Amino acid sequence: MWQGLLTAKDIPNIYIDSFSNDYIDDVFISIAGPITSYAKEKIEKSANEKIKEFTSTAKNVGVQLLSLVAKAGIKASTLGVIKDSDIEEFKEIRNDVAQDASAIAGNFVSERLSSHAKDIEQLELFKKSLSRLAIDLGKSKDKPLVIIIDELDRCKPTYAVEIIEKIKHLFSVKNVVFVLVMHKKQLEEAVKSVYGVNIDACTYLQKFINIETILPKIISGIYVNDIKTYSQKLYDAHELETWTDKGALIENIDFLAEHFNLSLRQLERVYTIITIFYASSAKNHFRVAQLLSFLAVIKVFHPSLFIDLLYEKATYEHVCKVTGLTQNESGQSFLILWIEFSLMTNEEFKVSAKQDKMDGLSFCIRDCGIKREKLMSMFAQKLNTLTG
Hints:
mainly alpha, 3-stranded parallel β-sheet
């Protein structure tokens, strides 16, 4: 959504899903690549030289970043494979492999010392070319190139840490702004995983992050509309076959998403759980859409409560206390009624002041062969078995 607002204001922007790229060993390429692709798509043909300049300098920097480990690994992997080959270009590699490890390391360090000044020059050329390219993309210095790096907290620790380090040291230039979308506590754990538990991860991250902000968790009309729109899109995208349950599912999931202030990612997980359940169900199977919606959301938002429901350890009073759900919820009394109905003890059921309504729900389950007090745990077990 925010990326859409940037586009609407003609501010150049690139979205990079770091989690989907963390299988790539070269972090530099995973950032420089999308910049190149975006520039080729957006920039005018008259400015093609800027793209060529950026690509050329990026290639030079990429070559510099090849590690000693990678170089030695390539050589070692060819040992024995090319020993009888007469291909001229492999002779040097073959001879290098024959040397001992200390000689290889010594030669490499000597080479790096000799080329140090050139490396710095190449890096500066790259940064200048990136800054100039950003100006061309924004058609002004007032519109920087915004690069959104999402899903950092979901990456493997080494990849996540390397991303923020590479951004700071290689891509931090005028006219380019990076926005890192992450769960900071999880990223701090990634830093500890890489550098040890004794490191002050919060202070370490401050070296790389200039401005921090937290997205406000405010339930507003705009938020509700976004949730409902995205919820419908998720339902359609999963091509769900829910027979007569569609209306109840969407209505209750939307309500619970608003009540618990679910993130869009959490909403995706809810629909994944619902999709897997219905994919293994049939039209004539017994289902209660209200309870399925509730359990799918609780499984994502409050796993410990889900476990209590699974093992019949949660009372209705406890669920209300933990979730904040009450019968006073506007327009959702039927959902709350089903929750209460399935969690009441037999003694509570007999003296309920809502006996007429409870009898109506009892009528709904009369032919399913399942006891009222087993409904919640039964559906929880099915969701847990199918989705882990």
